[in-house]
TrEMBL record:
Protein name: Zinc-dependent alcohol dehydrogenase family protein
Domain of life: Bacteria
An example molecular function term from Gene Ontology annotations: oxidoreductase activity, acting on the CH-OH group of donors, NAD or NADP as acceptor
Keyword Nucleotide-binding assigned: no
Domain Enoyl reductase (ER): 10-341
Gene3D superfamilies named in the record: Medium-chain alcohol dehydrogenases, catalytic domain, NAD(P)-binding Rossmann-like Domain
Record SUPFAM superfamilies: GroES-like, NAD(P)-binding Rossmann-fold domains
Family membership noted in the UniProt record: Belongs to the zinc-containing alcohol dehydrogenase family.
Cofactor(s) listed: Zn(2+)
Organism: Sedimentitalea arenosa
Keywords: Metal-binding, Oxidoreductase, Zinc
Length: 346
């Protein structure tokens, strides 16, 4: 099978022919239909979130089942499925409690196992992780249901309980931030998007943002407080850097909530944060990573019912040979929207 392999930090991915993967007894092999190029992949590419080299990245994918392990009961060859990027074991106490994203036995393709920048991928724990891909959802959009859209959904509804009528401030207008904008609007919130790239702010406006804030123009937190009439009820930090995390906390009204969605990697693993604002404002700060697979039905119901249109999220459909350029683009503010690999032969 054809795959794009990381052989050195920041080096262009090597296009190679690799043996097709075999399914584990509890797993399946998928023909990859689409795979997003995510900022988390960039962390692996730069070595900020190091993986063992050589390695096939790619963690945001959907596919068609082409092989089934002997212990799998729910899936058959030909089924089209969505996979969460965290594959939980389904047996441990955390999984039994519904907290699959903190499963101690989790497998994360693209990081701890070969990923989906390839024609095929092996997926462990298939019965407890995979979700059927509805016919009405195209594979390029479904790929983002493995990471960015589901991460945003869980942050808004599973962690911070966004309510209709609240102000949501999204710091970072990339893929997960744009997903948070669209989902927040669908839930009845008013949304302000903060970024430093004019094209991303314009993109947010076209997708229905109630307001945008250009952080280059001054104090972003103060501007959000002004736009929202006293501060956001909920802030989503979608970059994983100290500057935006501080601003997100300071943008909140008293008793506000913040969810750290952006991955703090490399130099940002440790941050200096305004703990006086946390204390004085009686704020709640949450971390989040992915979404438990049992929460897919609520999100798919919203999409299939026509209550949210996420198709605008995907702005670039690319070939496997283009992945290196998309990863390098994250060194600077990347273009608006999401790039998704749909051509695995070129």
């Amino acid at each position: 099978m054809r795959a794009a392999r990381l052989v050195d930090w920041r080096a262009p991915l090597e296009l190679v022919e690799l043996p097709s993967p075999e399914s584990a007894p509890d797993g399946v092999v998928l023909k990859v239909l689409a795979c997003g190029v995510c900022r988390s992949d960039w962390h692996a590419w730069t070595g900020a979130d190091p993986v063992d080299l050589p390695h096939v990245p790619g963690h945001e994918y959907c596919g068609e089942v082409i092989a089934v392990g002997r212990d799998v009961r729910r899936w058959r060859v030909g089924d089209r499925v969505i996979a969460p990027f965290i594959l939980a074991c389904g047996r441990c106490p955390e999984c039994a409690a519904g907290h699959q994203t903190i499963c101690a036995e989790q497998v994360v393709p693209g990081f701890t196992a070969p990923g989906a920048f390839a024609e095929e991928i092996a997926v462990r724990y298939a019965d407890v992780n995979l979700t059927a891909l509805p016919e009405a959802i195209a594979p390029d959009l479904a790929a983002a249901l493995g990471c960015r859209i589901t991460t945003a959904w869980h942050a808004l509804t599973g962690r911070a309980a966004l309510q209709a009528g609240e102000w949501l401030a999204v710091f970072g207008g990339g893929g997960v931030g744009t997903a948070a904008l669209l989902l927040g609007r669908a839930l009845g919130a008013r949304v302000v998007v903060v970024d430093v790239v004019a094209d991303k702010l314009d993109f947010a406006r076209t997708l229905g943002a109630d307001a945008v804030v250009d952080a280059r123009a001054g104090d972003a937190a103060e501007m959000v407080r002004e736009v929202t009439g006293g501060g956001a009820d909920l802030a989503i930090e979608a970059l994983g850097v100290e500057e935006t995390t501080r601003a997100a906390m300071l943008s909140l009204r008293k008793l506000g909530r913040m969810v750290q969605v952006g991955m703090p990697a490399g130099a940002h693993r440790e941050m200096r944060l305004p703990m006086d604002a946390l204390y004085g404002g009686q704020l709640a700060v949450y971390g989040t990573r992915g979404m438990p697979s049992w929460r897919y039905p609520s999100l798919l119901s919203l999409i299939e019912g026509g209550h949210v249109d996420l198709t605008g999220l995907v702005t670039r459909r690319i070939a496997l040979s283009d992945v290196s350029d998309e990863l390098a683009a994250f060194d600077a503010p990347a273009p608006p929207g999401v790039a998704v690999v749909t051509d695995f032969l070129n």
